[in-house]
Amino acid sequence: MAEWLEEILRHPTTSIPNAGKALGLSRNASYQAAGRGEILVLQFGRLKRVPTEWLRSTLLLPKK
């Protein structure tokens, strides 16, 4: 697994662009997918984060 992906998955959540990068999407495509509900997003006020457990399962990676 790539070092940058391991770093992302060490945390409970990540940004939409980072999640998109892991899925092979551009920054704009990531936000569009999140807006359509294709990327799971948690919203805390204006802050939007993607749960890394969701990302891990979407990528078919083993659980921690």
Automatic annotation (TrEMBL):
Species in which this protein is naturally found: Rhizobium gallicum bv. gallicum R602sp
Protein's UniProt name: DNA-binding protein
